Known about the structure:
The protein has one domain (about 5-155): Roll (Nuclear Transport Factor 2, Chain: A). It has 6 helices and 6 strands, in the order ααββαββββααα. It has helices at about 5-15, 20-25, 45-55, 115-125, 125-130, 135-155; strands spanning about 25-35, 40, 60-70, 75-85, 90-100, 105-110. Strands 2-1-6-5-4-3 form a 6-stranded mixed β-sheet. A hairpin with a 2-residue loop joins β5 (about 90-100) and β6 (about 105-110). It is globular, with a radius of gyration of 15 Å.
Amino acid sequence: MHPNEKVIHDFYTAFAKLDADGMAKCYHPDAQFTDPAFPLLKGTEVMGMWRMLVSRAKDFSLTHNAVSADDQGGRAHWEAKYTFSKTGRPVHNRIDAMFAFKDGLIIRHIDRFSFWRWAAQALGPVGLVAGWFPPLKWAVRKQARTGLDQFMDRQR
């Protein structure tokens, strides 16, 4: 197994256990993260987001597969099942991840998933009808960013 592939496995194994410290060990201090809810996080924001999500996780389970990596980058598929805290609705999110590495750690992490599918599950009828509509995505991003900022302020 390539060392970068092991880093990906270690990350998702820690995530499945809701072990934020184990997840943090896989990231470079200058890491960047992008997904539909958090379009660009840098450095401490990346682990702040994971720590926030892990601390709020309810009815959480995670599986990962299709992991591959080499010196340049890596990929994985992962699926998370959880209860969305704001609505109490169950979510089964299917995510494809891409990674870049520096010094044996994740320097860039991009998660891709269907925002519409996620919104339909997490937000119910509103998400189903408006999940494709950019203003809903912008509102979710703003809420996510505000939640992250508040969480990180409390951690200081």
